[in-house]
């Protein structure tokens, strides 16, 4: 049965989400009793008051996680049993797909149809992928002398703090939880304060799937009050972080100030999409370019925010891009299944994006379309899809992560100039090229400073494809088998036989 806009509005009005933290298998209030409000950015209304965790709550969660880890209840559970729990966990998430869709759409404003097309399938795929690895991980026997046996065990790290952002609340949590839990770690998940609700449902479902108490804990609260004590905690073995570069750097500092815990970071980007004159299908390059920057309101780490177009096709590309943007992503109420673009996550994010639009105008870029708040939607945090043309790569709008629906088109002379311009950034998350020349494609793939590269595509991938950056886009790799190495450590075992 199709759920209509009216149905979703009725469900939203009747929603009573869980608002307490999840520690040691139970929902609990913050030790201080404090709460913070989470708002619906489409209306400005308060959705719920959520437990506002502090250092004491973090410590309770870490203590429970450590106890569970040492007990072996999860870390030494038979692999086939752990796999069965992870699979049931994924099945339960699928059964609750509508609840997750409603929670994340209300909390952060993404179109509800994106939840069904992107976030939920992406989360399920990742959890099922890592569940499959559980009984396939093995160690190594090395080639030592005959009078010794030496083997290398691969073991979980212990307690992993997972600190995630608000732009894909469920999916970013799943990308971290899936490898961490599959490897046998205990986790303390800290969702973003803008979007804490779906993490609490996740924790309940892990428990219902048979996940033992203390293995999966959720602490809700503000970054400074909850995330910081988690990252500074002396008994946390690893922080898996996704978020801004600014906070990513703090995570590395916190690790140095505490116990040298491992830190993997997945941070921001200013990802280039290069379009060469020999592109076979310019219309497809334009529609993919539009989706690459305006999808999820532009609040995407890999948003293709810098579009570098060879001069010979510059005007044609701008015209096609402008035409496509009119129909593909227009702001509307995110609970309406036909909506393709929701509000930005908070009034602060809306102001930040609008201030970058002002900066672009002052820097001399040409505002081709958008740039304002849609008149009929001024109760929410909406910003129109916006395009600047004639942008120079030195401008702030081309160098800084805006994290909103603002595209910059930059003319380039040729492939060399395009690669040089594309690499002229502190970031290195994703990059794409549109070309029919195989040599240009391979040159680009070799020379671009980015962790994720697409040729004649954008945002394509699945659970097998590593997700992570070069340079200040971070040092971790989510999804993919490589993630398993980031949630395990090796142990060298020498057995003297002589
Ligand atoms: P953010 O860095 O502000 O917050 C991320 C998380 O860190 C939140 O849970 C927050 O509460 C916590 N935090 C904030 N300050 C903290 C502190 N001092 N100590 C400990 N924890 C703290 O990022 P955001 O605004 O939530 O998300 C947007 C950013 O995330 C963008 O830069 C985006 O590019 C990035 N991102 C990257 C990826 C990726 O895979 N590379 C994916 C999604 C988002």
Tell me what you see in this structure.
By secondary structure, the protein is an alpha/beta fold. The chain folds into two domains: 5-267 and 475-492, Aldehyde Dehydrogenase, Chain A, domain 1 (3-Layer(aba) Sandwich), CATH 3.40.605.10; 272-462, 3-Layer(aba) Sandwich (Aldehyde Dehydrogenase, Chain A, domain 2), CATH 3.40.309.10. Helices cover 40% and strands 19% of the residues. It contains 16 helices and 19 strands. The strands form five sheets. It has a seven-stranded mixed beta sheet, sandwiched between helices. It has a five-stranded parallel beta sheet with strand order 9-8-7-10-11, with helices on both faces. The protein has a three-stranded antiparallel beta sheet with strand order 5-6-19. Helix 13 links the parallel strand 15 and strand 16 (406-412). Helix 2 (55-71) packs parallel to helix 8. The longest helix has 22 residues, at 112-133. The radius of gyration is 23 Å and the shape is globular. The chain binds nicotinamide-adenine-dinucleotide.
Overall outline = globular
Number of helices: 16
Q: Which ions and ligands are bound to the chains?
A: nicotinamide-adenine-dinucleotide
Strand content: 15-25%
Main sheet makeup: 7 strands, mixed
What's the N-to-C terminus distance? 71 Å
**Which CATH architecture of the largest domain is right?**
3-Layer(aba) Sandwich
Number of E-type strands = 19
The radius of gyration over CA amounts to 23 Å
Mean pLDDT: 98
Coarse structural class:
alpha/beta
Secondary-structure map:
Blueprint: H1 5-14, E1 21-23, E2 26-28, E3 35-39, E4 46-51, H2 55-71, H3 79-95, H4 97-108, H5 112-133, E5 140-141, E6 148-156, E7 159-163, H6 169-182, E8 186-190, H7 197-208, E9 216-218, H8 223-232, E10 238-242, H9 245-257, E11 262-266, E12 272-275, H10 282-294, E13 306-310, H11 314-328, H12 347-363, E14 366-369, E15 386-389, H13 396-399, E16 406-412, H14 415-423, E17 430-434, H15 438-447, E18 452-455, H16 482-486, E19 488-496
Parallel strand pairs: 7-8, 7-10, 8-9, 10-11, 12-13, 12-17, 13-16, 15-16, 17-18
Antiparallel strand pairs: 1-2, 3-4, 5-6, 6-19, 14-15
Helix pairs in contact: 2-8, 3-5, 3-7, 4-5, 5-6, 10-11
The structure holds nicotinamide-adenine-dinucleotide (NAD).
Domain Aldehyde dehydrogenase: 27-493
Protein name: Aldehyde dehydrogenase
Keywords: Oxidoreductase
